[in-house]
From TrEMBL:
Taxonomic placement: unclassified sequences, metagenomes, ecological metagenomes
Pfam families: GCHY-1
Source species of the chain: marine sediment metagenome
InterPro entries recorded: GTP_cyclohydrolase_FolE2/MptA
Descriptive protein name: GTP cyclohydrolase I FolE2
Signal peptide: none
Keywords: Hydrolase
TM region positions: none
GO molecular function: GTP cyclohydrolase I activity
Length: 141
């Protein structure tokens, strides 16, 4: 079968980001104490498309995600980015993983226990340099 994506493109146009967006995906998040929590993430994965190529194999992005057995930590985000770059012959890779993370908290007045939701995001970029960002939205009560 002819591989259209890897054929030469005569238009001579670089595209900064091609990929998949808003993929709902079950993950296991590991924290620094090696505790885990099951949650559902919203994931965006992109690579650049050099001017020489007509397209990219976007299904490979999901294949890469599947290889990590749903285990996500800030440490393996870097590995995922490297794999994306290599497997898709890209010069840059970008990933965003957003998910709710729940922590048991005590109320300030009654001291009763309850789960507090924190919205977390891991963002990573890999080109010549690597940038990893952890964002946590902390509700104030």
């Amino acid at each position: 079968m002819l591989d259209i994506q890897n054929q030469k493109d005569d238009r001579n146009i670089n595209i900064d980001k091609v990929g998949v967006k808003d993929i709902r995906y079950p993950i296991t998040v590991r924290d620094k104490e090696i505790k885990t929590q099951q949650t559902v993430a919203l994931i965006n994965m992109y690579v650049n498309l050099p001017k020489d190529y007509k397209g990219t194999h976007m299904s490979r992005l999901i294949e890469i995600l599947n290889e990590y057995n749903r285990s996500i930590s800030i440490q393996n985000v870097s590995d995922i980015l490297s794999t994306m770059k290599k497997r898709l012959n890209a010069e840059s890779a970008h990933i965003e993983i957003s998910f709710p993370y729940f922590v048991m908290k005590s109320s300030p007045v009654t001291h009763s226990q309850g789960l507090m939701e924190y919205q977390c995001t891991f963002k990573g970029n890999l080109n010549k340099d690597k940038d990893l960002i952890i964002m946590i939205n902390v509700p104030i009560t």
